[in-house]
Amino acid sequence: MALIATILLGSLQLGGHSWQRVVGTSAATNDIAQTQDFLRTRLSEIYPEDPISRRTNSLVATNGSLEFLGTAPNASSEGILRYQIVLSAAGDLEVTASNAYRHSALSSAPTERLLSRVKSMTVRFWQHSANATGMWVDQWQDSTQIPRLIEIDLSFAEGDRYWPPLYIEPRVDTPVSCQFDVVSRRCRSET
Fold this sequence. Notes:
Elements: H1 2-44, E1 59-62, E2 65-71, E3 80-87, E4 93-99, E5 111-115, E6 118-127, E7 135-137, E8 149-156, E9 166-168, E10 180-181, E11 186-187
């Protein structure tokens, strides 16, 4: 009886450890899926022009940081938000959003953690011009348009999680002040 009890106890402990690993992996996978969904949704609705200052360079990417203008979530009445996604020194991927119409600074806006234990963040942009072959660039310099594709890659400290490739295609590609001409199919300022 003691031998059977020992075997049963060992089996239960092994099953408990396996269950904990499955739950931990599932939670990590869910966090990554939610972060990718957030980034895909917000960056696909990137806004090409700052509505306050009329700056057209509304997309800024530096090492470990991405700042852009985008529409607010459907449940919000904020309009256009300035998003800043930052990899903190503690290894947290954080997002801060402030209303672009109000002159509130990003530093006073609330910050929310998207992922923890992130080692590095790399952002690249697909640059394509009419007379050249497209290529990936690390910084977006063109203030007249937004990139065709945005790639975000994360690596994790332990290597226990996997970040699937994330490519985002922005849908809005005309300035806010565009007066569309139906004949030329362009903004009137471009004709």
